[in-house]
Amino acid sequence: MKLRNLFYILLISLFSLPSFAVSDKDMEEAKVIAAKLYLRWANNGSGYLDDVSASSMADLESKLKAQEKENLKAFKSVSIPADYASWDKQRFVQFWGTTFFTSPALNADGKRAKDRVKAKVSAMNVSAPSSAPKAEEPKQAETKPEEKKTAEETASTEAMNEEGGITIPEPQEVVHQEEAMADSLAVLQADEQSMAMSDRHEKAKSHTWIYVIILIVLVILVVWLMVYAANMMKKQGKENRAFEGGDKKLKKEIASMEAENDKLRSEVSRLKSEIEAAKAEIIRLKAMQADERKQRKEEKQPLSAQSAPVAKEIPAPQRKQEESKPQPKIINEIYLGRANPKGLFVRGDRRPNPAHTVFRLDTKDGIVGTFRFAATPEAFDLATSNPLQYLAGGCVCENFEDAENASSLITEAPGTAILENGCWKVLRKSKIRFE
Question: Is residue 101 part of a domain?
Answer without folding.
Answer: yes
